[in-house]
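Below is a complete specimen:
___
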Amino acid sequence: MTSDASTSRPESDAPEPPPLPLLHEPRDGVPAVIDTPDDLAAAARALAAASGPVAVDAERASGFRYGQRAFLIQLRRAGAGTFLIDPEALHDLSSIDTALRGSEWILHAATQDLPCLADTGMTPDAVFDTELAARLLSWPKVGLAAVVERMIGVRLAKEHSAVDWSTRPLPEPWLRYAALDVEVLIELRGLLADELEQAGKAEWARQEFLHLLDFKPTVHAEPWRRVSGLHTIRAPRALAIVREMWQAREDYARQTDVAPGRVLPDAAIIAAAKAAPTSKRSLLSIPAFRGRAAKSQVGLWFTALQTAARLDDAELPQSGKKTATPPPPRMWPGKNPEAAERLTAAKAVMASLHEQYEVPAENLMTPSVWRAVCWEPPQPLSAQSVDEALSALGARPWQRTIVAGPLTQALAAADA
């Protein structure tokens, strides 16, 4: 029997579904920004009198201001409504922290906001991270807008996500955007909790959320080595130029409260390290220094160059930072061929577990954790010793239950 071409329609010609409705106005309207002690005290009383979890978000001015501090904090709790707080005007938000003691905070991508919230005196007793929940469910898109579309069926406007939140006064459209970000979090939390339960991953999420309470940003021993393009620099004297110019930029950025990249791009530091100019004129002849920001502080940059030039050889940094952690995997074959064999075997195991348990590999276990065990396995090698090693490196119980046994077998096979 042949199909009737007049009644069949190619899949590519199928009509597109209508766009989801846009969430464009908070249900209670856009609240005024709280920037006085009296208004802050009233907000704390209202939040304390309400009940249930609290939706929390923070807006930073990354790329505009120095550091990662919050310039607006949004809160919403059933029975209290939405609050927009200006931490720059108030600084100490410990009264809000006290009002929320014992409550669960709902955040999206909690590791981005917890440090700047802690700087204001706010630390949670419990967390539900909607982004992490979506990751554990192995969803392809885990941004807030994508998760809201999938679970609630509305669109969030995100056109103000990268604006300069240090602007004062904050424009009303920005405040509407900020209020809407916490508008959906409480409902989203309930829906995601049900999804985790149905997927058999609720306990995994509970352990991950508990782990977030101890989250601290990574502190790098030599932060100047994170300059983009440093891998192209090998000579110790050139590395010294990078280090001195990075420190000069850091000090100036901190003093002026400007993002370091706006003061002087990483590309300019790398170009100066390669050229090693011996005068201000030759420094300014480098294309990366022709911008107004770089020119305005040419004396500062040239002083850093002179400092690097005067260093004794013993004071110069060396290529490749010294660290107790394993080197990048690409260097393993040359530095430790046996570890490289273990790494290859472990990669295959982790890929298989990723498929089996339907969870992203980086959430199944942080790669640096299982790589450290590959680099230096515990002795004698056993499932118990591997489990203990993973635990010491911060792996959660659910992760170790899944990974420890197969990883032990892979390490033993590679060594054999």
User: Anything to note?
Assistant: Residues 20-212 form a domain with the Nucleotidyltransferase; domain 5 fold (CATH 3.30.420.10).
